[in-house]
Amino acid sequence: MKKLLLLLAEQGQAIEAAARARASTIVADGEKNVLWQLWKMRKLRLRSKLTALSNLPRRKPMCRFSVRAIAPRQVADLAVQGAEQILAREVDKTVHAQAA
């Protein structure tokens, strides 16, 4: 009877070791598959971004100068000039003359 129990225990251990090895293989294959799918998705995302960027229409700049190249004092002067032009076109100039 003891021999039978020892034999069954050995067989159980062998079956358990084989099952663990098989499970380990399945998990490793699954991880490889997930990593492969992630790599493919990243590659597809980057390719679609590049395609979208390459299909954008080329726009010409709206002005010939850079706003950063203008000093703040020049910006203020341009704003005052623009305001003066708007005020010069007003019909009732007394409205803004009272505020000043």
Topology overview:
Layout: H1 2-54, H2 72-88, H3 94-99
Mean pLDDT: 78
Structural class, from helix and strand content?
mainly alpha
Spatial gap, N to C terminus: 114 Å
Low-confidence stretches: none
- Amount of helix: over 70%
- Tell me what portion of residues adopts beta-strand conformation: under 5%
Secondary structure tally, helices: 3
What does this 3D model show about the protein?
The chain is mostly helical. Helices cover about 75% and strands about 0% of the residues. The chain is built from three helices and no strands. The mean pLDDT is about 80.
Summary of the model, kept short:
The protein is built from three helices and no strands. It has helices spanning 2-54, 72-88, 94-99.
Properties at a glance:
100 residues, mainly alpha, 3 helices, 0% strand, rod-shaped
